[in-house]
Amino acid sequence: MQGGELSMENQRPHVVTCGLPYANGPAHIGHLRTYIPADIYVRTLRKLGENPVFICGSDTHGTPIVVNAEQLGITPKELVTRYHRYFDETFRKLGVIFDNYGSTDSEFNHRRTQQIVKELIDRGYVYPKSIELAYCPVCEMFLPDRYVDGKCPYCGSPARGDECDQGCGRHLEPGEILDPVCRVCGTRAESRIQEHYFFRLSAFKDFLLEYLARLEGTSNARNYALGWVKGELKDWCITRNLDWGVKFPGRDDLVVYVWVDAPIGYISSTEQWAEKTGESWERYWKGDARITHFIGSDIIYHHCIFWPAMLKGAGYTLPTAVVASGMVKIDDKTFSKSRGYVVWVDEYLENGFHPDLLRYYLASYTSHTKELNFSWKIFQEKCNNELVAILGNLAYRTLLFAFRNFGEVPEGEIDEGVIEKIGETIGLLDRSIREYEPKRMVDSVMALANFGNGYFQSHKPWELIKEDKGACGVVIRNALQIVKALAVLLEPVMPSKMEELWHYLGMETDIHSVGVKEALVPIEAGVKLKKPRILFEKIEDDAIEKMENLLRGRIEGGEEDIEKEDIEKMPELVSFDEFMQLDIRIGRVVEAEAIKGSRKLLRLLVDIGEEEPRQIVAGIAGIYKPEELLNREIVVLANLKPAKIFGYDSMGMLLAAGEGVLLVPDREVNPGERVR
């Protein structure tokens, strides 16, 4: 298929979803391995003439959210509301534009989840069963999921209530964990019997074997799921002892398990979109529709086994394709927030890097199912060697030459070879995206950019303009045709930058709505050109060194919980009474030393007017030497919860601005004086 000719199959209603981000922490590059390729897929299908609906939303329930909210002293509702807004805004900054971004805590999702659970009960796929659960006699509560630690019954490793996270990685059902201990108070838990509800997953084995054999998408998803189904399928406990979540029908003391209501969020978000647009959500979830899920490889089991079984049992449309990405590494090290091997989206954006550069990197680094390694050096090389030297070079020198010498698109026939090359590229793009390979798609379009550079160089317009301006005009019009095609075909990957390029070409249409066939339409002679600017600036070594230092400092500093810091950064008005709860004092540094093994941290003893100086660990070694701080007056937050940093207890926090410049009083003040 070339130029976006649609078959009957590709005219079916089509909903594309992304795995819902968990509303419990900020966005990192691991998230984007799913969302950016999915956005590229949807944008490309639209350019090929299709009209998929792009759906996502925040996953807002489960014990981790309840635990985190308790630690932060806020309600789960407050926590997920902040992160829901944060993810919605962050996706837009990255050019990931959903038709609807819902929430699993919406009325739509509560209603749809309860309807589906009732349907499963009526059809005999959900049943009650009394089971033994961990119960804390001190806290006087049953301990769901993350409220209990113990030992894995399968491998004996330390585990948490819902997963053997330090051993075999198996999902653990309620009551399975051995030697349970309450995470709240540390008390050894008792075993007590309570009635819960189970989904009869074991009844779907034959269905799943047949379904997975024809499931489209990526082979890693299909093969992983088949391996599980060919083994033993256990029924799933789908209720939890929590107040936060979707109430189980007929029970005020139980909520449904998060992996029940989270994927139902795809349906409820579609319902929300349909209500806004006047469309029918049932065309997508009750009719003959294509459903494509983009997910991370860590949730294949849920999307390829539990989810289709639940949909089948309740009488809903089954997913057509599951597209699972490969894992992410940072500098060839296993991705780990707790060890600091993470790149935060906010950090990337706040340091001035354009979102489209990251979109390009994630799309073009490797095959979608293979492991992706993020390295700041490789990021720099790809941007400079490909975007600057190939694509940006062709666009800028062609446009600048045309603007200076013609001021408009010159007259001249478009070469048959140029149109043929563009058509060939469209065909490769079409096949690549339908096989869920954005890298192959990008490679094919960048090959067209290389072709364009070769065309420009071989025809030497800078010499031809002196001899035959008309002949030179023909060359430039052909070169501009190639640039136009590149803007159209790369818009799904770099929507903002290609919109800018479209503007320089003098185009008045919306590049985001034009189809791939526009790349073959001869660029109109006589159109006034805009004075171009360089599309991609070279990334200098000092910018990369700064980002590498941030990463290295995070690794060495042992930053274990950026989520807690991040939630405090979100815009939130506070009352005067809340401000007065902060114990901010003037302190005087009486001792300072570097911490061995860390480039970032200093250990300080600070007199804040108490009997003994406070020990505070601060990440300011890159700005201040220890001897520069002795006897210096600083500002300290004294009632911050103690934290262990790099093995040292830190009993407060220095207040600083920008990159770590300390706040100091403008005249001498006694240690311990309150800041008001």
From TrEMBL:
One of its GO terms (cellular component) is aminoacyl-tRNA synthetase multienzyme complex. CDD domains: Anticodon_Ia_Met, MetRS_core, tRNA_bind_EcMetRS_like. Zn(2+) binds at C152, C155, C164, C168. InterPro entries: Anticodon_Met, Met-tRNA-synth_bsu_C, Met-tRNA_ligase_1, Met-tRNA_synth, Methionyl/Leucyl_tRNA_Synth, MetRS_core, MetRS_Zn, NA-bd_OB-fold. One of its GO terms (molecular function) is metal ion binding. Its EC number is 6.1.1.10. Keywords: Aminoacyl-tRNA synthetase, ATP-binding, Cytoplasm, Ligase, Metal-binding, Nucleotide-binding, Protein biosynthesis, RNA-binding, tRNA-binding, Zinc. GO terms for biological process: methionyl-tRNA aminoacylation. It is found in: Cytoplasm. Its cofactor is Zn(2+). It comes from the Archaea. SUPFAM superfamilies: Anticodon-binding domain of a subclass of class I aminoacyl-tRNA synthetases, Methionyl-tRNA synthetase (MetRS), Zn-domain, Nucleic acid-binding proteins, Nucleotidylyl transferase. Signal peptide: none annotated. It catalyses: tRNA(Met) + L-methionine + ATP = L-methionyl-tRNA(Met) + AMP + diphosphate. It is an enzyme of class 6 (ligase). Residues 578-676 form the TRNA-binding domain. Binds 1 zinc ion per subunit. ATP binds at K337. A motif ('KMSKS' region) lies at residues 334-338. Pfam families: Anticodon_3, tRNA-synt_1g, tRNA_bind. A motif ('HIGH' region) lies at residues 21-31. NCBIfam families: metG, metG_C_term, PRK00133.1. Is required not only for elongation of protein synthesis but also for the initiation of all mRNA translation through initiator tRNA(fMet) aminoacylation. Belongs to the class-I aminoacyl-tRNA synthetase family. MetG type 1 subfamily. Homodimer. This is Methionine--tRNA ligase.
